Structures are given as C-alpha cells and as structure tokens.
Amino acid sequence: MCGIVGYVGKNKNALHVLIDGLKALEYRGYDSAGIAVINDDKIKIVKSHGKIKNLEEKLNEVDNSYIGIGHTRWATHGKPTEVNAHPHKAGSVTLVHNGIIENYEELKKDLRKQGYKFKSETDTEIACALIDSIYKTSNNKLLTLKKANEMIKGSFAFGIIFDNDINNIYSMRKDSPLIIALGDNENYIASDVPAILSFTNKYILLDSNEYAVISEDKIDIYDNNLNLINKDIKEYEGTKEVVMKNGYEHFMLKEIHDEPKVIENTFKQFIKNNDINELIDNMPDLSKYDNIDIVACGSAYHAGLIGKSLIEKFADIPVNVELASEYRYKKNFNNEKTLTILVSQSGETADTLAALRKAKQNGTYTLGIINVVGSSIAREADSVLYIKAGCEIAVATTKAYLAQVLILSLITINKAISNNNISKEKAKLILEDLKKLPNMIDDLIKEKEKFEIIAKNIYKDNNIFFIGRGVDYAISMEGSLKLKEISYINSQAYAAGELKHGTISLIENGTPVVAVVTDENIAEKTISNIKETKARGANVILITTQKLNEKYGDSDFYDQKIVIPNISEFFTPILAIVPLQLIAYEVAKLRGENIDQPRNLAKSVTVE
Ligand code: AGP
C-alpha cells in the first residue's frame, strides 16, 4: 500500500518531516519514493527507485522548505521506476496518490485530445492532469476537486500542491485512508498515524468525499457540497515508541513479544472483573441469526476458519468462511438472518471493504473485527469489535491475528453460554484459563532455542508441508502463510486426510512436514496421516499438547516436537500458532530475508 506524508508550517524543515514520515510508513511496503517541496517559490520534485535511502542521497539538490508532500509507492500501474514514482506533476498541479483510478484509460484518451502528454505508466499521472485540466477552466480549486471526484472511478487519497498557492496543501479521498494531523503553527497530512507520531498525536480522519485545505495555521474541511464542516479531533493512544522496535531486531519479533500483553488488552475490554456476565453483556447477541458468514483475506481469513470451527462446535450455528476477493464477485446466499463478520487488521483491505458493502446491500447485519480505530471497515460496518492489538508494523501479522482469534473465541463462549451448551460454572473455568493465556504465550516465546534448532534443520529446504485436520488444518494454513510470506520458501497447508489423494506424491526423503495435532477427537487419525508421510521419508515436526504428548509422545512418528500447555480448547489455537510464528521468523532470519517488509507485499492491500 502506498504511503503519503505532507507538511506545512514554520517550525520545521519540510524535507526532514517528509523523510521521517515516509520512513515510519515503510512497513506498508513500497518500491520507490519521492518528495515535492517549494524552493524559491517553485515546486521542486525529487524521486528515486528503491528504498528511501536512495531518495535521501539525492536531496542535497533541494533547499530547506516550509511545505511539501512525500510518497512511498507500491506499484500497481507500471513498473517500480523513478519515472513512475510519485509525486507527479501536470501543468500547475503536483500530486501524490494512494489507491487505484479504475477509469484512467478513458480519462487518458480525453486528456490526450486536450494536448496532455504523459511520461509515466501510472494512473496517478492521469489524475494529476485531470485536476489540472479542470482547474484551467474552473479557476476554483475546491470546485476542481469536487468535479474530479465525480469523474474519477476507483479509490484515492490525494495530497496536492498548486503552483499558484504555495502555502496550502489540498487533500481529498475516496476509500483510501487519509488523516490530517494538527501541530502548533504547523499541520500535516498522512496515510496513517505512525507517519506523524514523532510530531503530534492529534489528528482528524478525513472521510470519503470530503476536501481539506491545510496551511501552517489553518485546517479547513469541506463536505461534498463544499460547505465548511467541523470534524472531531482524535488523540492517538500510542506513542512513537509504538512504531519503534524497542531494541528488537525486527518489528515482527517485537510484535510476537507483545502478544501476552495484547491478549490481556483484548479480553480486558470485555471482562474487567472476572465476571462472566460482563462477557455476556459485551459480546454481540447472536440469537437473531441462524447463519454466519465470515469474510476476510490472508491471515484474517485463517482466523475466520478458527472461528468457524469453534462457533459450529460450541454455538451450533453454521458458519461459511469466504475469501473476500471471491465473496465480492460470487452469488451469496445470505439474508436478514445472516450475520456477516468482516475480519481485518487494517480495516482498509479493498476486497474486505467491498465485501462489507455487498453484505450490507444484501441486507445482512455486519460486524467488523478490526484493529485500526476509525478505519473504513470499522466505520462502515453496522458494529465493530476492536481487537486492541496496537499498531502492527510488520507486514506479516502476528499479534493482531492472535487477537482476532481471541475475539472469535469470546463470541463463541458467549453464544455457547446463551445456548446452555456450557454452564456458567464451566464458563468460569474457561475464564480462569483465559487469565493464564498471556503467561503461557510468554513461556512459549521463551523456548527460542527450540525454534532456532528446528529452523536450522529446515531453512535450506525449498518445499515445506503443513498438515492438520479440522481446527488443526486452519492452524496449519496460518503457519504455512507465515513461513512463505517472510522466508519465500514454497509451503502449503494440506488437510491431513487429503494427502493420500495426490499430494503425498510430493513427499520425498527429508521433506519437512509440520504436523499440528491439538484436537483430541481426531488426533489418532492425524497421527496415521503423519505416519504415512514418515514412511516416505518425511522430516516431521510435531506441534501438540501436553495431554496428547503423554498419550502419543513416545511413538517414533516425528523427528522434532513442540509441546504446548493444556488449556481450554477455546484458546488452544492461539497457543499453537505461536511456535509456528517463531519458527517462520527464525527460518527467514537464517535466510537473510527482509522480515518486516517482505518483497512484493504490503501491510494493507487497499487495491484489488
Ligand atoms: C498476513 O501476515 C498478511 N500480511 C496478509 O495475509 C493479511 O492478513 C491480509 O492482507 C489481510 O489484511 P487485513 O487483516 O488488514 O485485512
């Protein structure tokens, strides 16, 4: 996802603010960067391919400035090159953009007829020329932005500087996130809060179809009728430390170490005094629904699969889990008795946002399980449960995934109580286990040497299998994604019972097979499948519970094992993923990969 930063003010050098802000947004993933500042009353643009340090090496050509816009680009239209990097300039308009202009080819044809020539392959340059062409006739900046908003199909967050107004930054957005941050005699725009946390924690969320004009001492925001409006000023709870590594080598490792605290923060929102009735009061009432759709992408989808397993087993409600990118284009069989749950860390994932809108059009009630406060999905869902995982910087999600699963577990416990599937006494024991969960996670994280040994054993392999049944299959899917997205090793998760229907042909001597066996009801079946792989030379890494280890641990169907403590089965999936996150981390480290910003990936995919 692209990153936008803008500054206008008296107290700082805009160049430093832009570079510092873009560095704080590096976690979103990018492949080129650029800035535009005013020098001697003229716009000066400097861009570079690759990382921000390449851009910094070119900045000696630029003098200090009091106003500027900056951008990190995650290529969608056109290769990651300097020409395609932002900012783009057309006529009197300089612009940075996050999002996708879906009708850019149609606009380009018309602009070409007006005499515009284009240097880049980007949709952004088209938007820039469009705004310039409208402004030439309207001679009114706000009217120009409104008209451009009407003509552009797709998603955008823009930061704009006009040649003839070098004291203001203009912004508008449709779907792609943008905030306006407030300082003393200085103001900012940014795609996300981390970009400005060094300078201020006060910010305004610009909504779609709103327009902002910011100067050093003024912020004017207009609605779609171009009336001035007031907006709430929010204060970000975190600090710059939140986006710093605090001594850890990688954000991913820091965020795994945050997990015990995150789990506590997540459940303490709903259960402050260890009273199960608090949970019942604070969780959504599912009694109105006879079926549930959980819609998400990536790890959030895997969290949904865990939710399905628990809700169907304990809450007796059928759950359909869909990839948002599939859901949004397929026929859906939902209605007013359907609860649609959208799971998303960023709350900005384009496919999940589109799925939310489709579910609402179909008349279903929508619940967001979201991390980023005030994000698009959080604001458009009928209700939202915030997971309170804090700012997650590493592209590979860890703490937020755990918190998503926990929220789904709490929703299940609540429904199981109201269904009388579990007694309040049983529920109290479950809550006792919940209180132990943070320390259990902490103890697992401390078994670092075990994960390093396993990682050393497999990091040179090119194909690694994950297998499990039922909820263990869902855990395997997340473990596999963690490994492949940061180590680039080809890894797949398979339903253990499915291996003999084709996939087992891929197992050869030494092939690593990570086997997750935590579900007692089907442990024997999974162990049989593990033995089938072992018989063909697999190098088996077993993840199991203390209880199952006592029953099956003496056997020779595995080569290495990680034993997780016994806990209520509502929380076992949370414990089981921690070793898989850490093994993935250690493997990627041994392979020397860019763990926090894996190639080709972005923290939040705000484009289709
Ligand atoms: C997970 O490690 C990946 N970064 C990715 O699969 C992510 O879970 C997915 O893009 C969904 O993001 P969201 O939770 O912000 O919607």
In short:
By secondary structure, the protein is an alpha/beta fold.
Any chance you could write out the topology, listing elements then pairs?
Blueprint: E1 3-9, H1 14-24, E2 32-39, E3 42-49, H2 52-56, E4 67-73, E5 88-90, E6 93-101, H3 104-113, H4 123-138, H5 141-151, E7 154-162, E8 165-174, E9 179-182, E10 186-190, E11 202-205, E12 211-214, E13 219-222, E14 228-229, E15 234-235, H6 251-257, H7 259-268, H8 276-282, E16 291-296, H9 298-315, E17 319-323, H10 324-327, E18 338-344, H11 350-361, E19 365-370, H12 376-380, E20 383-386, H13 399-418, H14 424-445, H15 448-458, E21 463-468, H16 471-487, E22 490-495, E23 512-517, H17 523-534, E24 539-545, H18 546-552, E25 560-564, H19 572-590
Parallel strand pairs: 16-17, 16-18, 18-19, 19-20, 21-22, 21-23, 23-24, 24-25
Antiparallel strand pairs: 1-4, 1-10, 2-3, 2-4, 5-6, 6-7, 7-8, 8-12, 9-10, 9-11, 11-15, 12-13, 13-14
Bound molecules: 2-deoxy-2-amino glucitol-6-phosphate.
Account of the 3D structure:
By secondary structure, the chain is of the alpha/beta class. It has three domains: 3-241, Glutamine Phosphoribosylpyrophosphate, subunit 1, domain 1 (4-Layer Sandwich); 245-446, Rossmann fold (3-Layer(aba) Sandwich), CATH 3.40.50.10490; 447-608, 3-Layer(aba) Sandwich (Rossmann fold), CATH 3.40.50. The protein is built from 19 helices and 25 strands. The strands form four sheets. The chain has an eight-stranded antiparallel beta sheet. A seven-stranded antiparallel beta sheet has the order 5-6-7-8-12-13-14. The chain has a five-stranded parallel beta sheet with strand order 17-16-18-19-20, sandwiched between helices. Strand 21, helix 16 and strand 22 form a beta-alpha-beta unit. Helix 7 (259-268) runs parallel beside helix 13. The longest helix has 22 residues, at 424-445. The model has no long low-confidence stretch (mean pLDDT 94). The structure holds 2-deoxy-2-amino glucitol-6-phosphate. 2-deoxy-2-amino glucitol-6-phosphate (AGP) binds at residues 297-300, 344-346, 349, 352, 395-397, 485, 604-605. 2-deoxy-2-amino glucitol-6-phosphate binds next to helix 9.
